[in-house]
Amino acid sequence: EVVMTQSPDTLSLSPGERATLSCRASQSVSSSYLSWYQQKPGQAPRLLIYGASTRATGIPARFSGSGSGTDFTLTISSLQPEDFAVYYCQQNYNLPWTFGQGTKVETK
Amino acid sequence: QVQLQESGPGLVKPSETLSLTCTVSGGSISSYYWSWIRQPPGKGLEWIGYIYFSGSTSYNPSLKSRVTISVDTSKNQFYLKLSSVTAADTAVYYCARVGILIGYYNDYWGQGTLVTVSS
Which site among B46, B50, B105, B107 would you substitute to test the A interface, given the most A Cβ atoms closer than 10 Å to its Cβ? Predict the structure, then answer.
């Protein structure tokens, strides 16, 4: 099983600041099969990024993804109030498909 | 716009079988993979398994002996059965479509349904 480890567990930032979230895989994952999700309390996860760097429909340009192999990054260039949430990465390359444990972006 | 809706009992007794239905609207169930994912209260996401519209499946080994996912293309529905449940199976259960433009990813999700295992 590919273990996805996200860091940090919690990121405390102010609106307008840049957020950098890390996702590390225990073995190499094709970047085509790496996705990022945002989840707010009481809501289902929402797809942000697929293929490691392609924004999903309707996702603002302040969200960007990068990385390859075992190291992937989600960057939010300037945090908006609605961006404070939990973010998950997922690999769909090797079965079983696995999620990271999540990074909570909270208001400082 | 594709929409997914989970339905089923919100309370299941220990040792019994959890059964959920996911109804897909706004698009055909054909030509896609469809996933079940769960989230225990206050915890992260766990992939349960997927089914292709043709009926082929893959399950998480951690649940494989207890899970069955099936599909009825005529009803545009797919299903989850989880047997011999315990309190550890208490979670919000989501169904999701697996997008296939680049690799695989979950592009459409249901709102989720909380299933509590308790006597």
Answer: B105
Task: Return the structure tokens found at A45.
Answer: 């996860």
Q: Which residue has the tokens 């999540």?
A: A102
b/e burial code for range A19-47 (CB count within 10 A of at least 16 → b): bebbbbbeeebebbbbbbbbbeeeebbbb
To the nearest whole angstrom, how far is the Cα of B21 from the nearest Cα of chain A?
Answer: 17
Q: What is the DSSP annotation of B58-101?
A: EE-TTTTTTEEEEEETTTTEEEEEE-S--GGG-EEEEEEEEE-S
Asked whether the beta carbons of A19 and B89 are under 8 A apart, the reply is no
Mean pLDDT of A46-57: 97
Residues 6 or more apart from B71 whose CB is under 8 A from it? B29, B34, B51, B53, B55, B77, B78, B79
**Would the pLDDT of B36 be above 90?**
yes
Element (H, E) at A54: strand A54-55
Structure tokens at A93: 């390359």
Q: What is the pLDDT of residue A41?
A: 96
